[in-house]
Write a structure and sequence with these properties.
single chain; alpha/beta; 2 domains; 5-stranded mixed beta sheet; 23 helices
């Protein structure tokens, strides 16, 4: 089959339609609802994330309403942008439209990209920016001085999507090893591009100045456990990335990377350096603590570029596609059929990222609980919960009608942006309906209010006679001590 630009465009359009259909069909997660809620409280940045993806939801919500498609539209657009950027990058590396199409198809054989192409997260936008930065770095090493501007913009925009986008700077190592590229350092272009890049990242620094650098302290210190040295998490990191890339394609990517890093072509070394950076950094971090497997996602995307340009055996592709499709369909089926699955199994616990979670806890009953909250809520009351997933999902499922507030009573490291939305004066003295699946929290709630009473009966979410979730409601009168629990802002 001859891949023309028109056919490649049709491939991207078809994939985008598929992503949109899946975005509409599948319920959103707690993390996605969190980003949606952040987009309703416009700010320079948030406590745990920069704001590019959050800002992008504002126009999509204006066009599509408070829907799953609106929440996921930025991810779908970023996935399309990745397909668009593949073509000029691959042409720079000696390939053509056919290799770009093979890369995009290979990406859809990986669970990482297939599922991430319509899931609202910061990762897809970050990957698009890093891909653009890689393209620019390749152009620089090939003598295009103006590509410094593109590199600077890509780094800045990537940083606004997710902080690890700065790892694309690893591509400058082979760039600066080139004598021709070093000549650019005698001109103002690289330095002006760097200033532009820093200017683009200004929203993050403005938020930091406004909030005692809480976002920077979280990224550099608070989110890290600092555990003992070991290889347990390293093995988890490697194996989970092989699963996200599919084992056969993952091994093939590693072999291709070794060939590329040894290649004399500086352009190929740029790609190999950017591909290595997230794997190396987070692999080192995993020596002491558990890391999320998707943090190395840019390496998998660039790995598909390597495979498409080097050629990959049919058996490897078929095996990888079969594995990836099985994982993707299994994950989608698990979400779609969660209600039916819960009818024949009680709610087991799942140990994931060092947290115990109920398998169906984030999948079953949210709509029912939201309706029950609306039924019980009294005029003037606010809704509170210690679960940031519950807080934002109930707000989303109610169409934004429920006035939900997060109460930081338990552990966790993410989802605290809402603690910077309301000053003490807006939450003190208010009455709350506290919703929780942890009734033992009553002892921690009581000192915060004048009076706390549990409202009967508890709500049971059942499926096929099995109790999947138990929800408790507490009537809390006049909040007295909001600091550190309901807000982190000064009076």
């Amino acid at each position: 089959m001859t891949w023309t630009a028109r056919r490649y465009g049709m491939l991207l359009a078809g994939a985008t339609v598929l992503h949109a259909l899946l975005a509409v069909a599948l319920p959103i997660s707690g993390d996605e609802a969190y980003y949606w809620d952040c987009s309703r409280h416009l700010d320079w940045a948030t406590f745990d994330q920069p704001s590019l993806v959050i800002w992008a939801m504002i126009p999509s919500r204006a066009l599509l309403g408070e829907t799953a498609l609106a929440v996921r539209a930025p991810a779908i657009a970023a996935s399309l942008l990745i397909g668009v950027l593949l073509l000029p990058l691959i042409r720079r590396l000696g390939g053509g439209t056919r290799e770009a199409a093979v890369t995009y198809l290979l990406l859809h054989a990986t669970p990482l990209f297939f599922l991430g192409s319509f899931y609202a997260s910061t990762d897809t936008a970050m990957i698009a920016a890093m891909l653009g930065g890689t393209w620019a770095a390749v152009a620089i090493v090939q003598g295009e001085r103006r590509a410094w501007w593109g590199f600077g913009v890509a780094v800045g925009i990537g940083f606004l999507a997710k902080f690890p986008a700065v790892l694309v700077l690893a591509g400058l190592v082979p760039v600066l090893a080139s004598r021709e590229a070093r000549r650019d350092l005698r001109t103002p272009t690289p330095y002006l591009a760097a200033l532009l890049s820093i200017a683009v990242t200004a929203p993050v620094w403005i938020w930091a100045v406004q909030h005692n650098c809480d976002n920077l302290a979280f990224q550099l210190r608070d989110r890290h456990d600092g555990g003992t040295l070991g290889i347990k998490h390293v093995l988890e990191f490697v194996l989970s990335n092989l699963a996200l890339a599919t084992p056969t394609l993952g091994v093939a990517m590693a072999v291709a990377w070794w060939r590329w890093i040894r290649h004399g072509d500086p352009a190929r070394r740029v790609v190999a350096a950017v591909m290595l950076a997230p794997v190396l950094l987070f692999g080192l971090v995993s020596l002491r603590e558990q890391v999320a497997s998707h943090w190395a996602a840019p390496a998998i995307v660039l790995g598909c570029v390597l495979l498409a340009l080097d050629g990959v055996g049919r058996k490897v592709v078929v095996a990888g596609a079969a594995f990836g499709l099985t994982v993707c369909l299994g994950a989608i089926a698990f979400v779609v059929l969660a209600d039916h699955l819960a009818t024949w199994t009680a709610a087991p616990t799942l140990h994931l990222y060092e947290k115990e979670a109920t398998v169906f806890g984030s999948l079953v009953g949210h709509e029912e609980i939201t309706r029950e909250i609306e039924r019980r809520l009294r005029p003037g009351e606010l809704v509170a919960s210690e679960s940031y997933t519950a807080v934002h999902l109930h707000a989303f499922l109610s169409g934004g009608r429920l006035p939900t507030r997060l109460a930081k009573l338990t552990g966790g490291k993410h989802g605290f942006a809402s603690l910077y939305w309301y000053p003490p004066g807006e939450v003190t003295g208010k009455d709350y309906l506290f919703v929780t699946e942890k009734p033992q929290l009553a002892a921690r709630i009581a000192p915060l209010f004048e009076r706390v009473e549990e409202e009967a009966p508890e709500m049971l979410v059942t499926r096929g006679g099995a109790v999947v979730r138990r929800v408790h409601f507490f009537r809390c009168t006049k909040l007295r001590r909001p600091e550190g629990v309901f807000t982190r802002l000064d009076p």
